[in-house]
Amino acid sequence: MNWKTAYRSFYYHGAPDPGDPDLAPAQTALLSIDVQNVYLRVAEDPVEKARWAPFQRRMREVVIPRTRALQNAFRARGMDVIHARIACLLDDGRDRSLSQKKPGWNYLLLPQGGEDSQIVPELAPEPGEIVMTKTTDSALTGTNLRLVLHNMGVVNVVLTGIFTDQCVSSTVRSLADESFNVLVIEDCCAAGTDNLHHKELEILNMIYCHVLSSAELRKIMELPGAEEA
């Protein structure tokens, strides 16, 4: 099974296979969502540590190294690499959206200068790369990203990051509503569980985006490393 037939939801069962996307380098950018220190912190509580172990393993062994390789491939071709992160402008977080103020796991108080709010070192932005700071789930509605992409002539957005079923999903839907062509790289994303990850990709695929592996994207775009994919 390949990207043209994988992640089919109920709605797209039996639909014609999509054609290969036209990803002109000058019109295509890579966007990484919220791979920040706070999410790679290992829980001290043994129960929570065990519960999050599969996520931590996927991030360390799959998502981060493959995202880094993809970022470097884009850079080698002179293509734009863009970053988004969750961070509040005020230390008390009054500027956050309601979704980040609600009690529970999604309560996020990440002042922009704090260590927790920084992008993990392995995926740190290089000099001159755009970093969007948001207090919303969507990187589009919470920043001027739409205007920036428009001004840069970008029509294709290749998306990586976390969490698949939350900020990645919100960004995908917002981009699709603004008529951007979105590609989600499945092995460069993660949710709290693999089941949540796969289910959300099924929901998003073929209506809001196309879901590909990093190897499939490399071959389509003839990126460095494609011969090894």
Question: Can you tell me about this structure?
Answer:
The longest helix is centred in the first third of the chain and has 31 residues, at 46-76. The protein has 5 helices and 6 strands; from the N terminus they run E-H-E-E-H-E-H-E-H-E-H. It is α/β, with parallel strands linked by helices and 229 residues long. The chain has helices at 46-76, 145-152, 164-177, 194-204, 214-221; strands spanning 28-33, 80-86, 131-134, 156-162, 181-190, 210-212. Helix 1 (46-76) links the parallel strand 1 and strand 2 (80-86). It has a 6-stranded parallel sheet with strand order 3-2-1-4-5-6. The chain has a single domain (40-228), classed as 3-Layer(aba) Sandwich (Rossmann fold). The protein starts with 27 loop residues before the first strand and ends in an 8-residue tail after the last helix.
